[in-house]
Amino acid sequence: MDSPRISYNDFPEQDEKRKRLVLDNGSKIAVVGSGPAGSFFSYYLLDMAERLGLDIYVDIYEPRDFSHTAPKGCNMCGGIVSETLVQTLAADGINLPPTVVQRGIDSYYMHMDVGDVRIETPLKEKRIGAVTRGSGPRDIKEIKWESFDGYLQKLATAKGANLINERVTTVSFNQGRPRIKTRHGSSRTYDMLAVAVGVNSPVLNLFNGLDIGYHSPETTKTFICEYYLGSETIEKYLGSSMHVFLLNIPRLEFAAIIPKGDYATVCMLGENIDDDLVKAFLDSPEVRATMPLGWQAEKRSCWCFPRINVKGAQQPYSDRIVFIGDCGVTRLYKDGIGAAYRTAKAAASTAIFQGISIDDFRQYYMPACKTINSDNAIGKLSFFFTSQIQKYRFARRGLLKMTIEEQDLKGSKRCMSTVLWDMFTGSAPYRDIFLSTLHPAFLSGFLKNIASSLGRE
Ligand SMILES: Cc1cc2nc3c(=O)[nH]c(=O)nc-3n(C[C@H](O)[C@H](O)[C@H](O)COP(=O)(O)OP(=O)(O)OC[C@H]3O[C@@H](n4cnc5c(N)ncnc54)[C@H](O)[C@@H]3O)c2cc1C
Fold first, then answer.
1. pLDDT tens across 86-121, in order?
2. Where are the domains of the chain?
3. Mapping DSSP to helix (H, G, I), strand (E, B) and coil, where does residue 175 land?
């Protein structure tokens, strides 16, 4: 029967509420994409439904097979997961096993033209974990870690989601309900559609054309590549540290080299990263000094230029449709997986406890997106200040001097190290990081160090 349907909830007998679109016993939900957002959404939707005794059906559409090595099984990412996310998931009963999260990174090196500094995790609980999104780079010899995306997908299917290993090619409406078609399959109509296709899929254009108020996010091109070095060489040259580069290279916002078993992952974020920018970075003396002797930048195991969301989508919801993860709203540059978790869970709880109309999503889902969007505005400001520091040698010197001097202090007194750690790892909201920089101890320490560096210019 077509909508409106009455909810399993005991709604008061008001016409207004009767007309609401809600999930009911037998409702069918399609989830397009099984990256973190799609799998988290499916898992939490089924989990919440189960708790309420609500019998729903979830189909997940995903063309990738995460047991494959890249690029067939990979969702292109640096793979850093904050300890905050690992602990939040544990509180929800999702314990990521050590075969999925490598928690070996205990410090980072900040590299600048004016010198380097090793920064220990300021507080012990702020360790960082690394994951592999697929089953490893193209030339992997031995698969040592389980795919993170594959693990989440299994959680969702264990909860009862049905995995359809196909790419969605057409989306339309059938009497107000979303209809999905894959290249080889027939059309299926659903009561609700959760879109979790990220920002690297042409299918986004289909949604832009649906006339539902949705406009896909603004994006920019990034760069990721993997180098096979072998675990002994990794240990010798990179150790258990993430290596972060603050270099004065125009358009480069941030770059990191992350040790992962036998491989080193290079990640570059900035404004439309292209071959020239990649070359400028990899040829820089700072990178050359970090990588092993004889390392050849062009000898890569695997590389790609994925897009990243830099400004959230407009109206990531409509009647019966919600956009989660990267194709909706995500955190600027950092902790995209954490943002996928937050938007997916907010969308699932809206759908189960409130309803699936445009008004329900506006009222109960949108606040989660707005929190991320407002934090991103502060993040942009923070990245602007960082870029100013990158530009001026005296500022870089001041930053380095302050960070080096802090390393002998207790964790809580290392103001600059904590700010840098949170900024680079995405462990804290940008708002908290920004507020830390307004602390008198931080400001006076930084200004003092800048002033002393100015004298040396
Ligand atoms: C260079 C770079 C580095 C990053 N580093 C980090 C990091 O260190 N830590 C972190 O937390 N985040 C990082 N991110 C961000 C992170 O990758 C994303 O925020 C996260 O993957 C978003 O998850 P998602 O599920 O929304 O989208 P995705 O992970 O992109 O998943 C989308 C899924 O949809 C599927 N799909 C696409 N089209 C279709 C279709 N037509 N039909 C069916 N399925 C489809 C895809 O196959 C894919 O599995 C990084 C991003 C980039 C670009």
1. 889 999 999 999 899 887 788 889 999 999 999 877
2. 15-68+149-218+309-378, 101-129+220-308, 379-456
3. coil
79 lines ligand 1 (CB under 6 A): yes
Query: Quick check: CB of 146 below 6 Å from ligand 1?
Result: no
Classified as helix, coil or strand, 308 is: strand
What is the topology classification, in CATH, of domain 101-129+220-308?
D-Amino Acid Oxidase; Chain A, domain 2 (3.30.9)
* CB of 15 closer than 8 Å to CB of 2: no
Nearest C-alpha to atom 51 of ligand 1 is from which residue?
77
| 11 confidence band (pLDDT: 50, 70, 90) | very low
pLDDT digits (tens, 9 = 90+) for 40-68: 999 999 999 999 999 999 999 999 999 88
Determine the distance separating the centroid of ligand 1 and the alpha carbon of 28, expressed in angstroms. Answer: 25
- Is the domain 15-68+149-218+309-378 a CATH 1.20.1600.10 member? no
Tell me whether the CATH fold assigned to 15-68+149-218+309-378 matches the one assigned to 101-129+220-308. no
Decide: 396 and 389 in contact? Cβ < 8 Å. Answer: yes
- Burial class from Cβ neighbours inside 10 Å (0-12, 13-18, 19+) for residue 365 reads buried
